[in-house]
Amino acid sequence: MTALRYFAPCPRGLEQSLAAELTALGATVEAAVGGGVAFGGDHATGYLANLHSRFASRVLLRVAEGSYRDDDDLYRLANRCEWERWFDVRRTLRVDVAAMRSPLRSLNFATLRIKDGAVDRFRTRTGARPSIDTEQPDVRIFGFLDERTAVLYLDLSGEPLFKRGWRTERDDKGEAPLKENLAAGLLALAGWTPEQPLYDPFCGSGTIVIEAAQQALGIAPGLSRRFGFQNLLDFDSSLWAQLHSDAVRKVQAGAGAQQLRIAASDIDGRALEQVSRNAQRAGLPPDALRVERCNVLDARPPFDAPGMIVTNPPYGERLELRAASGAPDGPEAWNGVGRAFKERFNGWRLWILTSDPALPRQLGMKARRRTPLFNGSIECRLFGFEIFAPGQAPRRPGT
pLDDT digits over 386-397, tens only? Predict the structure, then answer.
């Protein structure tokens, strides 16, 4: 096995979920750090992580590492790296740099020096240099700087992995659309499994329920998209074809075997139309989701057995509550939502991602768990509740 070293960034709070997922895919997890997981494996490991990871934002291949004190050290590190081993000079290129406690004054200049080191190496050896394309590059180089060490990576993913291939630009309009890998993280942190009924009463474009249905049906999140590693010189097309075919066969073998109990509702009829279109693009059968237009204050359990509500309601910069619930804005609105849940969803578990730390009090419910997460740049909490009818005593642990 060819030993390669990888790093997969992910939304903060999902590191342990990602580490467990990568281990299940055959990777050797080296460390779970804030915002990602370092792991090792062969070429197949990198391909499988891109194809199957629900939590990673990208898969990066470590190609160079060295100490540095100034921007010239970064130039020399990039210039020593054998980029011609990885991609052709005709490929377009983009360089990005992130840092933590770096002594350098300008990350923009650090990025420029790494880019210069890479393209100058090509010019020295071939007489030509790659063109830069910051919008849709063929190849991406990522640099990470701490106080003394610089690490250079090749991006194997291309577009971020939360872009599963079914979301349209229309879905991304708004202040902070829920990314697919964070939606998968909400389901994992909530402990949802496909055997449990699932309901999202603020479904928007359907990210949470579509992610859940794909998981239940065994549809690999990267099954319908292209990856950056397909542009590299060491791309093993036969290996990739085999891994991709295995993923397709898994879906075909499980077709019809799983009876889904996944439901979604929203007060916005246009959002529900988008859910249906997205579900079709995501490869879901027509009956995979139960979707209806509904004011959350009038919502009823969509299934006979209690299950789990996992939702990301409008908050803060996203939208006013009025647009989604039909209720007055502010704490009174959430108090009404809490009453509706307690009156009709007895026995269900409720998980809400919100930027408002006062939400449990506004709902009139006590959070059993709270997990810090970020939705884009917005700091949030995933609150977990057990719903009891008014006047009903909470169950004791283990009962």
Answer: 998 776 655 554
